[in-house]
Amino acid sequence: MPQIAPYAFDGHVEAAAFLKDEPVFALSDGTIRFPAGGETAIEAHEGGLLAARLDSFAPRLLSGGEDGRVVQTTPDRQSAEIASAGRKWISSVAGGPGGVVGYAVGRTAYVKGAKGDVREFAHARTVEDVAFAPKGLRLATARYDGASLFFAGTDAKAQELDWKGAHTGVTFSPDGRFLVTIMQENALHGWRLDDGKHMRMTGYPGKVKSLSWSAKGKFLATSGAPAAILWPFTGKDGPMGKAPLELGTRGDTTVVAVACHPSDDVVAIGYADGMILAVRFSDAKEALLRRGGSGAARTLAWDAKGRFLAFGTENGEAGVIDIAG
Questions:
Q1: Which distant-in-sequence residues (6+ apart) come within 8 Å of 37 by Cβ?
Q2: Nearest residue to 183 (alpha-carbon basis) of 211, 152, 160
Q3: Which of 100, 108, 238, 271 has its CA 20 to 30 A from that of 284?
Q4: d(CA 187, CA 104)
Q5: What's residue 197's pLDDT?
Q6: pLDDT top residue among 5 and 294
Q7: Are the beta carbons of 170 and 140 closer than 8 angstroms?
């Protein structure tokens, strides 16, 4: 068994991440915890933390809370407010290039530029999630009946991608060619962005709550089934007409979190009973990383080199797994 450095917190772990080489955990109680080498607990939000996401463009953890604040936490264990919506709840956050930040408040998505300018993008219904394209300032929002695409630095009209139903999460493929949303029903939906062609990804027995792109963007790993479901995104049609990989199948529990390795074709899988496996794409070979616990393994994150895996559960159990240990 790999070695595990265990941590115990008082509440639900919303997100686990690494800031440079240091593990950090965002808790639903509004605190950001750095537990290694002498714990630092940062009171980032009053009333509760609603969203936390690692910025893919810069070494910072972004969070939004019930206090209407967007906060960035940096590797030096410092937090600072970088945007505010009064006392309105911040339901989603995302980092963009050059220090830009996007966030959702009710029916409006906001983009705050590096110079402090703020743009608003109004919607007819609640904005459920925001994400930036891998290159440039193109912002995607998940909304009721589809997704919207904005060029965040201009007043250009939004590109509307419609599909009936509630869409609660959104992600770009690493090459920027595809946009995928999580639906309230047990399904994903996608679009090929150059022509708007639809992609339906269905068959889940439960709701999808976790997504992770593989190192080269060839697969999108997802939760929501007794196995991790990996949709292939090679070729111009993405997953259409292709069967997904099903890895780490267990008949007695459900996959609730996935995290693809940063360089290898391996996925870490967290289950509702707290077990964590690492599974190789090519031959489905499994390695047990954690036997289980008293809460679901809701969040997983690799460090940049792919040696350490941080995890957090819904009841406050957390830790860092040394897979070489």
A1: none
A2: 211
A3: 238
A4: 23
A5: 95
A6: 5
A7: yes
